[in-house]
Design goal:
Residues 8-106 form the HTH araC/xylS-type domain. With 287 residues, the chain is of the alpha+beta class. It is 41% helix and 21% strand.
Length: 287
């Protein structure tokens, strides 16, 4: 099964079981992927989490049923996964900006989220520059925080983490400590060994440093891997986000490589991140 077909199969599974209890494990299994990598791929391609997609689709269907039937609001609340009418009303208002009662009276406009269809995008005008390299294991040192992917804590917390590191001088220290082959300061995402149960990741801001671990920093060993290294050109964060999306929507679907499942790296140079000429890299371990 191809990469795009695997992702679409998982989406189809979510749609077919939308009114049932869905688990991340079963969804990822449909795509023949780990929970961590499926969640990451899905959020990069769609700009939303899996739980956001499920919630938006359920509330879209609930709105359609609300205005096209006489079914009681309390029954619709239970049908679409809410324990109380109050919880249903709160979620419904957040998405549609009206209450279920107002929607039934056709007051205001409803916000509909359609079923997703994954497509391969072919772009000859935007070539991707990359290389394949093999590296032995190496040490990184830095600071880390733990985030929950299920509730979107990672998407909100990681940018704040970078702001903190840039503001307290840790970023400058890491550039000074950089003495390994990977040149720059790294953003490293590592899934918890119990990710299936807890949806936790460790996010490191670190650098390739060979030698003793400096005081107040932690160390991690990056395993020996074959890497695909993508060039990223342009100001942060847009250039990095756009390249990730291009990797998942264009590069992986048209190549035979798969992710190896070990930590991926974002590599930042010590230049002005707002510059249109800013250079950075994305390192993905492959097999």
């Amino acid at each position: 099964m191809g990469w795009v077909e695997s992702i679409q199969k998982a989406i189809n599974y979510m749609e077919e079981h939308l009114l049932e209890e869905l688990t991340m494990e079963n969804i990822a299994r449909e795509a023949n992927s780990s929970v961590f990598h499926f969640q990451r791929t899905f959020s990069i391609l769609t700009d939303m989490s899996i739980s956001d997609y499920i919630r938006r689709r359920r509330l879209t269907l609930a709105a359609q049923e609300l205005i096209n039937t006489d079914n009681k609001i309390i029954d619709l609340a239970y049908k679409y996964g809410y324990d109380t009418p109050e919880a249903f009303t709160k979620a419904f208002r957040k998405q549609h900006s009206v209450t279920p009662s107002e929607a039934r009276k056709k007051q205001g406009k409803l916000q509909s989220y359609n079923r997703l269809v994954i497509q391969v995008i072919l772009k000859g005008a935007d070539p991707m520059k990359y290389k394949i390299v093999e590296k032995d294991s190496f040490q990184v040192v830095g600071v880390k925080r733990t985030y929950n992917c299920k509730n979107g804590e990672n998407t909100q917390g990681i940018p704040l983490f970078w702001d903190e590191v840039n503001g307290d001088g840790t970023d400058d220290l890491l550039f000074q400590l950089n003495n390994g082959e990977v040149d720059g300061v790294l953003g490293v995402c590592v899934a918890d060994e119990n990710f299936k149960e807890n949806s936790l990741i460790d996010y490191w801001i670190a650098t390739n440093h060979e030698g003793d671990v400096p005081e107040n920093l932690q160390a991690m060993e990056i395993p020996a891997s074959k890497w695909v290294v993508f060039e990223v050109h342009g100001p942060m964060p847009d250039a990095m986000q756009n390249t990730w999306k291009q990797i998942y929507s264009e590069w992986f679907p048209s190549n035979s490589y798969e992710q190896a499942g070990t930590p991926e790296l974002e590599v930042y140079s010590n230049e002005n991140p707002s510059s249109p000429d800013y250079y950075s890299e994305i390192w993905i371990p492959i097999k």
